[in-house]
Specification:
The protein has 11 helices and 14 strands. By secondary structure, it is of the alpha/beta class. It folds into 2 domains: 218 residues, Rossmann fold (3-Layer(aba) Sandwich); 81 residues, YebC, transcriptional regulation domain (Alpha-Beta Plaits, 2-Layer Sandwich). The strands form 3 sheets. Strands 6-7-8-3-9-10 form a 6-stranded mixed sheet. Strands 2-1-4-5 form a 4-stranded antiparallel sheet. A 4-stranded antiparallel sheet has the order 12-13-11-14. A hairpin with a 2-residue loop joins strand 12 and strand 13. The longest helix is centred in the middle third of the chain and has 16 residues.
């Protein structure tokens, strides 16, 4: 696989503050690459440099073989960008927004018209194509700007928090679209705060913290890398005293998650046997019982807590 994004020693200073500190990474053709980080870690600044919105203090970015500093227009022609906040013109209709994007990228009308029809249909917006965007809900606007980013049939799609604040159906549609684009050979650069989303969609993820890359790898490999405790997740037919469960043998920690209780342990078999004995002693029924390994969220928390 060839690299379609190459970042070398990328750095950005703001008034004496180093927001991004000499980072290096590559994104391979056809992969979904997740870019994760806590607020203030340098994630947004990095994405803005990769898409040519701001210039780096030093370092370089290459997109589809074009140096972004020397050939910004050629590099940007290969991209589609979905910002976190809508960049659609609210006074224009959905249709006119799409045609405006086509004109910006030099897409001929004979291509732009059927492509707009296809995208509006895919995102369930065709019936509202002639309505002003100011009448759209947040979810509809998000679907529209995603469609706008695809009007130039980009090689690389930058998605910045694409499902933030969306209802379940709209978020699912966006995620399915990501999978379809990947199958079609597109490269996706995805920023998200949803760890489950990153774990489900991404071939690899990079975690940035304090302006530096803390880790880059496939989600499952990152989970294996941190090792540590497994946890047993259980729920009962009635409320229980969590302190009783924390006193079971082999338990290193306990936390609640809704109606479920998560027990951290390096002896899951012993923990499960203890839970069964506990339920019998108090005449309880176990509703769910699962043994789980560390999640991408656990990896994220561990790496971003380290200084």
């Amino acid at each position: 696989m060839k690299n379609v994004i190459e970042v070398k020693e990328l750095t950005k200073h703001y008034n004496g503050l180093t927001a991004v500190d000499h980072i290096d990474f590559e994104v391979e053709e056809g992969e979904v690459f997740g870019f994760l980080g806590p607020n203030g870690a340098g994630k947004t600044t990095t994405v803005r440099m990769l898409t040519g919105v701001i210039k780096p203090s030093s370092g370089s970015v290459s997109v589809m073989g074009f140096d972004l500093g020397r050939h910004p227009i050629r590099a940007k022609e290969t991209m589609g960008v979905v910002p976190e906040l809508s960049n659609a013109y609210t006074e224009l209709s959905a249709w006119n927004n799409l045609q405006f994007m086509a004109e910006l990228y030099g897409v001929p009308k004979r291509v732009a018209v059927p492509r707009a029809e296809e995208l509006l249909t895919r995102f369930d917006l065709y019936d509202r194509k002639d309505h002003a965007v100011k009448t759209f809900s947040k979810g509809m606007k998000q679907k529209l700007i995603t469609a706008m980013s695809l009007m130039n049939d980009p090689d690389i799609l930058f998605l910045d928090e694409p499902t933030s604040g969306l209802d379940v159906q709209s978020a699912r549609l966006i995620k399915e679209m990501v999978r379809e684009l990947r199958k079609a050979g597109k490269t996706i650069f995805l920023t998200t705060h949803y760890m489950d989303e990153a774990s489900q969609l991404c071939n690899r993820v990079a975690i940035i913290n304090h302006g530096r890359i803390a880790a880059i790898d496939a989600p499952e490999k990152l989970k294996m890398r941190i090792g540590g405790l497994q946890y047993v997740e259980v729920s009962f037919t009635a409320p229980v005293d969590v302190s009783d469960l924390s006193a079971l043998p082999g338990i290193a920690g306990v936390r609640t998650s809704g109606d479920k209780i998560q027990l951290y342990t390096d002896e899951p078999d012993r923990t499960i046997r203890g839970l069964v004995d506990y339920s019998r002693s108090f005449d309880l029924e176990i509703v769910t019982l699962n043994t789980l390994t560390p999640t991408l969220e656990d990896v994220f928390v561990k790496l971003t807590e380290e200084v």
